[in-house]
Amino acid sequence: MIKNIEQIKEYYYPEDLSINRSKGISAICRCHNEEEFCILSLLSVKDFFDEIICVFNNCTDRSEELVRKLNLPNVKIFYYPFKIVPAGPETKNVCINSVKNIVFYTNYCISLSNYDWIYRWDLDNIALPNFYELKNIVQSDRYNSIEDRAWDLVGLNCNMLGSQEYCSFEKRLIKINDNVRYILNGNQTAEEPYVPGLSYRVEESTFLHLRWCLSKPEKYWKIGWENDPHFKSIFERHMPIKKYEGNLPKILKDYLELDRDSDKLIELYKRDQLNAKTRPF
Questions:
Q1: Cα(48)–Cα(234) distance, rounded to whole angstroms?
Q2: How big is the CA angle at 103 (ends 101 and 105), to the nearest 5 degrees?
Q3: Is the CATH number 3.90.550 carried by domain 9-278?
Q4: Residues forming a β-bridge with 174
Q5: Contact (CB, 8 A) for 28 and 107
Q6: Helix, strand, or coil here: 12?
Q7: What does pTM read for this prediction?
Q8: Could you give phi then psi for residue 267, rounded to 5 degrees?
Q9: Longest Cα pair distance anywhere in the chain, in angstroms?
Q10: Distance between CA 116 and CA 118 in Å, rounded?
Q11: For 158-208, what is each residue's pLDDT tens digit?
């Protein structure tokens, strides 16, 4: 059992995260104030994952309310009430087994899942059509992890102001075997998966990353970030350098046409579901 230094037993988790897992894929969604894109994000992957683990971390917005209103059958809701030290220089000062450490938090989230593959899916991601092809790679049973990447869009209209060309490759889809877990990266500023074995790299982007399309992106930054070299360098890296010219998924087009209103998007989804059930064959 992995214990936290705060000795809060409800948040201990098994040392071996691979115990009692079924064949399938779990989404791990660490949710902190994701109301702007969470419904859009979940609808884009609802048919890919066997379960979607949403772990709400001190949300002060409508994230949970919206997810519950959407009421997807494969979504499971949990809570993590501790203040997480965000990835960055301050992570070095937090014990890896503290409930405040992002590594402990991530591994705890994995422990809530039930399937032998997990994808650390952020709720500002929107799946592209080829995202669903990742399942073919999983089912080949040849790899222990899959690296993919995204187009990193910028601007309120998602493609009007350009884009960073790509997010970096990352092992987001990993098979939970013995000793597989998240650890601190080399410079101890962020979490990364430790996954021994063969990895498959998908060259073409599988999703769109919308963090820089938020109406108020500054709410995710600490006060005085502009004077912190680490955060300033992140901001500069995300300046638009190339216009995105690919097709936007239909769900994203619908969302933009609805003036980025998640409640209306939920209503549209439920209406489409009802029409599909009553449609004659």
A1: 31
A2: 70
A3: yes
A4: 118, 145
A5: no
A6: coil
A7: 0.88
A8: -60, -40
A9: 62
A10: 7
A11: 554 455 567 778 999 999 998 899 999 888 888 899 999 999 999 999 999
